[in-house]
Design brief:
The protein folds into two domains: 98 residues, no CATH class; 186 residues, Rossmann fold, CATH 3.40.50.1460. The chain is 45% helix and 17% strand. The chain is built from ten helices and eleven strands. It has a seven-stranded mixed beta sheet, sandwiched between helices. Strands 1-2 form a two-stranded antiparallel sheet. Strands 6-7 form a two-stranded antiparallel sheet. The protein starts with a helix and ends with a strand.
């Protein structure tokens, strides 16, 4: 295995917030080949495990826990820059199967599926959601890690369309684009194309069922903070909007977010890049929020 291959694998783990798996993959890659990096990774693994145990015991604050994870991500990125050009083959353990990477990995295990869901009912202000979808696909098609993403889409969705798509695709990233209505939930369509509310209770139940698959949700819809908070309680990164957001700003935010994911960055970094992307939209620049474990992430 070479440096480019292990870097791609580890970046995928980091982006999915799977730091334990990233540490193990790097340790396996350098074992017996670079004693300095072996020792460094032992220290990083020990620090990571200590942070996880302290959280389980409740002896550190949520903010300190997040800072510990951020330090691990930063240190992993630095270690990847020092990797030898050739290393050991790495076996990736998943809950379903073991995959040994080779010079031509074929498995879909390393591919993140993005499910783009959109609804703009006829009795609502019409949004150009097709344009947003095209821009996301364009960004990912041009990205450095374009082969690590697969995009599926469902337009004019009803609740039943969402549940079917979740079962069919089992995505790692779910993107909802459309209208939000605060406490009432997200706006989807009925059989006639008119407004139906997907209530927060139902949304919570849905993502509780798919929390092992889904790593990130983007609610690109106005007033979706309540739904973002609830979904995030399942250990999922969630983007929500704390107010109304303009159509152009929403599209630009999504463009920046997926541009950064396609470059190999994690969800927190991608969110920050997306905020930079919409910084010229003065009225909307502070509308997006990132949630994790039921709390807003301070970025």
């Amino acid at each position: 295995m070479d440096k480019d291959q292990i870097t791609q694998i580890v970046n995928g783990f980091i982006a999915n917030n799977e730091l334990k798996e990233a540490l193990q993959a790097l340790s396996d890659y350098v074992k017996g080949r670079n004693s300095y990096l072996e020792n460094d990774l032992l220290l990083q693994t020990s620090s990571f495990n200590g942070n996880e145990k302290d959280r389980e015991k409740g002896v550190i604050t949520g903010e300190d826990y997040k800072m510990g994870k951020a330090r691990t991500r930063n240190n992993l990125t630095q270690i990847m820059g020092r990797l030898p050009e050739e290393g050991n083959e790495v076996v990736i353990q998943t809950s379903e199967l073991n995959i040994t990477t080779s010079s031509h990995p074929k498995s879909e295990n390393g591919i993140r599926k993005i499910l783009f869901l959109a609804a703009t009912p006829e009795d609502q202000v019409q949004l150009n959601l097709g344009k947003e979808f095209r821009k996301i696909k364009t960004q990912l098609s041009a990205a450095k890690h374009r082969n690590k993403f697969k995009v599926e889409n469902e337009m004019a969705v009803r609740i039943s369309d969402i549940t079917q798509a979740m079962q069919d695709h089992k995505p790692q990233i779910v993107h909802f684009s459309g209208h939000g209505s605060g406490k009432q939930g997200l706006v989807v369509e009925d059989d006639a194309g008119n407004t139906v509310f997907f209530p927060t209770k139902g949304i919570n139940r849905l993502f509780r069922l798919f929390k092992k698959d889904v790593k990130c949700v983007v609610l690109n819809a106005c007033f979706a903070s309540e739904q973002a908070e609830v979904i995030s309680q399942h250990g999922i990164y969630v983007v929500g909007m704390n107010d109304a957001i303009g159509d152009k700003a929403a599209t630009d935010f999504a463009t920046g977010f997926y541009q950064s994911l396609g470059a190999g960055n994690d969800y927190e970094f991608a969110f920050d890049i997306a905020l930079v992307t919409i910084s010229s939209h003065i009225d909307d620049a502070d509308t997006p929020e990132l949630w994790y474990d039921g709390k807003k992430v301070d970025i």
